[in-house]
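Fold this: Ig-like domain-containing protein
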Amino acid sequence: VSWELHRFNDQKKFFLATDDQVFQFSQPTRRLYAEHAIDSSDWYLIFDPLDREDYGDLTCMLADTGYNNSIYLRRRLIVYSEPFVVQSSTKDIEVNEGDNILLKCFAQGLPPPQIQWMKADASPLPDGNIRAIGAVELPINDIRKQDRGIYKCLAINLVGYGDIWTLKVNVKFPPYIRCPYPMVGQAINFLVDIYVECYVHGYPAPRISWYKNDYGGQISDTMSVDVLRPIWNSYKYKIEATIPEPNICTDCILSRLTVINVLASDLGSYVINATTNDKPYRTALASVFVFETPECQQFITHRNNIGCKRLRFTTNRASLTICQSILLLFVILTVDLI
């Protein structure tokens, strides 16, 4: 007796055994056995354990006849298995804003799994629905920056807990800038600082630079920054960049410029510039205006300053008494000389 398996998952055919001699599935651990009942004409093929890949047509055939004499028995070996997503599904991708893409999720299992698409953060899919059910492919046409994120493919059937395939979709888009407070005030000559903040959006992350607009012209994305005075980290300026919390924004950078010890010359317009690192270069500009206030605004103070105190010359009572005594002595000497 010979045994043959026509496996459905990969359409391969295996000669499993002849009589009690097994040819397949012995490595790394044997899981196939062929046995013959004593004093009987019955033959048994035992799978221990049964694998999901064993799903297919199993044929028992008399070894000395072949198919031509039609002495064989064929049965469908059905293996109920929980779903799993195969590696040929779409992996992480990076596209340009406006592109059309097609996400694919291929799953195996029996009964055939149902496919569901969703975003990991539970935000709506590009079509406005929270989930897309039953489709192996998820098309996204004219993709926008808000469509970026982590997508999940869930394969489920009546067996097991299902399988999840995740992939990240990155969307390249040009930078743009949002400054929450376009005008910020501070008193001068108080030994206090002032900071201005802007959120810079863009993917990949753009290069960020700050300038002082000393020439007074209008700011627009088409202007050249060559007419502006560049700002660097120094005794006068401090530039910082942090990643905000995801609930504030994603794919953005919080850029903060601190002006140390604000003086009258520090008032005016400050310009932030964001430029892409890849060609074609794209640029975004925004400005924040710093004006004088009559009272000190306690934003960030100099490390040597306690509170908002104006710099001024003071004279204590002892010094005043000494000055008065010196003046009186001068008057007396003058009278005597006369």
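The domain at 179-292 is CATH 2.60.40.10 (Immunoglobulin-like). The helical segments are 317-337.
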